[in-house]
Structure prediction request, 627 residues.
Amino acid sequence: MAESPAITTMPAAEPAEEGVSLWQDAWHRLARNRMAIGSAIVLAIMMILSFGAPLIAKQKYDEQNLQLGAVPPNAKYWLGTDYLGRDQFTRLLYGGRVSITVGLVATAVSLVIGVLYGAIAGYLGGKADTVMMRIVDALYSLPLALMVILLMVFAKDMGTNWEQFLLQKFEWKTRLGEYWNLILIFAAIGAVEWLTMARIVRAQVQALRKQEFIEAAFALGLRKRRIILRHLLPNVLGPVVVYSTLTVPAVMLLEAFLSFLGLGVQPPMSSWGLMINDGAQAMEEHPWLLIAPGTALAMTLFCLNFLGDGLRDALDVRASKD
Amino acid sequence: MLRFIANRLLQTIPVLFLVATLTFFLVRLAPGGPFSAEKKVPAEILKNLEAHFGLDKPLYVQYAEYLGNLCKGDLGPSFKYSNWSVNELIAMSFPVSLELGCYAISIAMLIGITAGLIASLRANTITDHAPMSLAMLGICVPTFVMGPLLILIFGLTLGWFNASGWDSARDRVLPALTLGGYYAAYVARLTRGGMLEIMSQDFIRTARAKGADDRRVLLKHALKGGLLPVVAFLGPAIAGLVSGSFVIETVFQIPGLGRYFITSVFNRDYTLVVGTVLFYFALVVLLNLIVDILQVWLNPKLRFE
Prediction:
């Protein structure tokens, strides 16, 4: 790259801008948002409780006590028991573990697909970009939940089949059958929830490509790696973090929806959607079976949405101008 | 405009073909069959049944025959509801879902836009925070929690409305409120956001400078533009209403298309699954076209694209 005297003056302007980095700035703004911080704390407590379930819970999640049956919340069973005498508090913790895991992993899947797709479309531009984004537009307005339902039914037994295949052919013992439903949910939900992410990343990349500071970085002869890591990535990362936070509740909702319809997590495993389904069927006599998992799910979604909104306010460049 | 519409309708055909193919093979290759769920049927009867529905032929022949009938608009006979064709089942159950959907959209628009407008008029005051917190709560309580809760409170405890069925007006209140309320929450948030953005623009200041009063500024100048995000949301909302209706119709035991779809998936009622999926996709694509036309009509900026 040619180096002209005009360009050598540019780095000199940088130090004046320094002082507070983008992330420090965002952190300060987030720390002032009490709702967002409160939500983050509630979420952290929920995650510790859920993932610490084996340590906290006194029973196993599928431990039955048929003689006991359904009893209302009391000192021994904090959230009561269901008709099989299973402790609801235990099931709520284990269910939270499943629901939160699904939320995080499926979001990660959608994140990878969405960021790659959006970045490629934005980077290529032109005709390829138009076609790629038209596809996203078309998918956006279709009832993809239908396809997720069909996919769940179609691939239902595949895990057990593969487990047996691996065992017979390679004598490789797996627990694929047991966890297959979860894996399927990760894949199916991740495959439909990436659309918004792709749109956002594509818009961001396209806008950045035209910005002076990227051109300047090119003109300065910075290496591509450095441009991508130091200049492109931090600017894309903000929206990606925000929308990932907002995708988690959407994913958890879809998992609960599938489990509610009997297509998602299968008993005796526990998930909040499954518990809500059980609770809805028994609510006339045992309303506590519906109220506890419903509250847990709603509270988690509430906190995630508030945290996402808070992050958006803290990180969004457009909103931070005023 | 006509060319745009014709173009979009033509684009639909390959999409529907793709959906038909995908659905056909997904449901055919899924484990289990339409006659395996019940108690064991004797082998000869099973053979007869399969021959009657053409299940004994190779899959590709079945596929070709299905597509051939599809071109004539025939979705085939149902496997589970004997003597019913899929066309008849859809014709019977769709009006119920449509009615529910219309109630839900009306409630969503009426409550959502009103709440969003009130919130945007005095931003960051109690009349803003109260409806918006409520809207956030509405978004976070899924329909499959809200539905049973409403049944528990208003159906079983207070006895104001009926908990299930679809015969009288008392049956219709709770499902319509559950489905509509969920989307009202979204609409309220979008209305507030859209209105706040519009109200900060220069042409609103110009209108005020020229002496237009609040009422005139709001109704004449701001409302049309401020509602653009709401109209844009209608597209995804329609797709969401479809899956929402699965839950609502299951919870409230409403004999609509959504419930038929869910049971057909469990029953492996092959033709009914493919038929309802195709019908849903065609419907959603058509409604989205209407939403797009509405958007162009509301937002002149889009006309040049």
